[in-house]
Structures are given as C-alpha cells and as structure tokens.
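Need tokens for this chain, all 123 residues.
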Amino acid sequence: VQLQASGGGLVQAGGSLRLSCAASGSGRTSTTAWFRQAPGKERDFVAAIKISGGSTYYGDSVKGRFTISRDNAKNTMYLQMNSLKPEDTAVYYCAAGPAITSSVWFQNSYYYWGQGTQVTVSS
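Here are the structure tokens for all 123 residues:
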C-alpha cells in the first residue's frame, strides 16, 4: 500500500485546513489513521477510522475540533481540522494497517505510512 498525504500549509490560529491521504495498491488494512510529530517530540496519535463501518477514534487534544472521514470509492482519507491552535503545528502522517479497536492508538498497529505533510499554525 502506498499512501500520499497532502493539504498541509500555513494557517492562522482559529483557522481551518483539510488534509487528504490517497491510497493505492493492496495490503492488510482495516484501519487508516493520522499521526503527527512536532519538532523535538514523539509522534502522537491524532485520529483513526475503520475502513469497514467507519467507526472513528480521536486523540483527546483534537476531539471536537478535528473530523476524520473516508471516501472508500476514492481510497482517500481526510482530516478536517477546525479551530486550529499553534500547538497543532506538526508534520502530519497518514497510516494504514490491520489495527484492531483496542490498538488504533499505537503506531506499531500500522504497516504503511505516507511521507508527511507540514501543518503550521501561527499565533
């Protein structure tokens, strides 16, 4: 599976961005997710969505502000980010893998990773 993330950019605090992650190829995937990594910090879970059924999961810091969605016909995942804060500044990575419900939050549940897209939120 190859993943291509796009949609990052520079936005002012309070603004919005939508990230996209297009997938191609085949592999063991039941779940797709977004993670992010700020400079000098570890990569953190942002949100995940089940390919079948569409169940969604969110990290505490983005609940109520970010929305993850999928278009299975296009093999594309989205992350709508609203009310952005400077602390949301990071490189955002999309991922795919056979993550089960109890493990969607963990990086090692995902086999395939995109190249990352930079999101910068200015204050």
